[in-house]
């Protein structure tokens, strides 16, 4: 963990910045934090288990998806077998036979809850409808906006850091690169620590940057990936130019317009998170389902 990746806690001393940020946040779109433990070598963050595989409802050849969590919950709520009383004609002392103790859960099938990130969801469900793209994107955008309003930037927004469940509810995870938003230009970020294919041009150039605009750029990369099934840029050199291809007649003009505003090289012209949430495509619910 780098030096700036620590937070000085009044009670526990230095703890990972990720733990501090997670325990500060409380939003349905951000994974919940429960506790923090440490030993002589590691810190252990206890968080909710989020995400289950999503299968598109139009895949009629497959049975409807069932949440593994629901299966486990029903099994746990099943009544335990009642003790059995019986008489044995073979015993002449009138006493009841001793029955071996049987655990109510011995024969109960154990499940490991399967999680799924957005990368896997896109890979398994190519060609998501625009309605689904909109539903996923808006949830992520609201979670990122909440982080900014709370004084933090994520700094590593990508499909692998978002989990999704069978009901298309998503949550941001992995806040290992997250940090408080710098209050002065002197404290601006001078390096990039996220994933290279989501890095904004200013970060690629090594220019000091505040952070929220980097998150907007990364959200633009995510939106493009959701809409077209691949990243907008093949390498950092192309990303630095901000030039990307839009397949014709595949997505609505509203979605493409938002993409161009989010993936704008010039910081002054790139939209802020508030503008993203107020954009006509976001507010309108996506023009194609």
TrEMBL record:
Record bears the keyword Nucleotide-binding: yes
Q: Locate the Protein kinase domain: which residues?
A: 1-282
**Single GO term (MF):** protein serine/threonine kinase activity
**GO CC annotations?**
cytosol; nucleus
Q: Does the keyword Transcription apply?
A: no
Q: Which residues form a coiled coil?
A: none
- Positions of the region Disordered? 79-114
Question: Which BP terms does GO give this entry?
Answer: intracellular signal transduction; negative regulation of glycogen biosynthetic process
Keyword set for this entry?
ATP-binding, Kinase, Nucleotide-binding, Transferase
Q: Which Pfam families match?
A: Pkinase (PF00069)
Q: Which protein, by its recorded name, is this? A: Kinase-like domain-containing protein
């Amino acid at each position: 963990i780098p030096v700036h990746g620590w937070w000085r806690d009044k009670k526990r001393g230095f703890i990972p910045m990720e733990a501090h940020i997670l325990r500060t946040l409380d939003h349905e779109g951000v994974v919940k934090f429960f506790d923090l433990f440490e030993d002589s070598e590691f810190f252990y963050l206890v968080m909710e288990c989020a995400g289950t595989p999503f299968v598109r409802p139009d895949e009629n050849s497959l049975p409807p998806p069932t949440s593994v969590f629901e299966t486990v919950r029903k099994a746990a709520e099943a009544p335990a077998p009642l003790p059995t009383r019986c008489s044995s004609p073979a015993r002449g002392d009138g006493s009841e036979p001793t029955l071996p103790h049987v655990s109510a859960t011995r024969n109960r099938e154990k499940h490991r809850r399967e999680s799924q990130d957005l990368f896997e969801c896109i890979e398994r469900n190519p060609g998501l409808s625009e309605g689904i793209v909109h539903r996923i994107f808006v949830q992520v955008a609201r979670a990122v906006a909440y982080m900014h309003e709370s004084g933090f930037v994520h700094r590593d927004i990508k499909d692998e850091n978002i989990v999704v469940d069978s009901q298309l509810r998503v949550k941001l995870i992995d806040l290992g690169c997250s940090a408080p938003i710098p209050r002065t230009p002197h404290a601006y970020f001078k390096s990039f620590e996220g994933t290279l294919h989501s890095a904004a041009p200013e970060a690629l150039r090594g220019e000091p940057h505040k952070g929220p605009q980097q998150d907007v750029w990364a959200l633009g990369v995510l939106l493009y990936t959701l809409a077209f099934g691949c990243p907008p840029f093949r390498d950092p050199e192309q990303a630095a130019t901000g030039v990307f291809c839009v397949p014709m007649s595949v997505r609505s003009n509203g979605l493409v317009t938002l993409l161009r505003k989010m993936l704008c090289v010039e910081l002054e012209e790139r939209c802020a998170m508030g503008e993203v949430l107020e954009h006509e495509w976001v507010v309108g619910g996506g023009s194609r389902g």
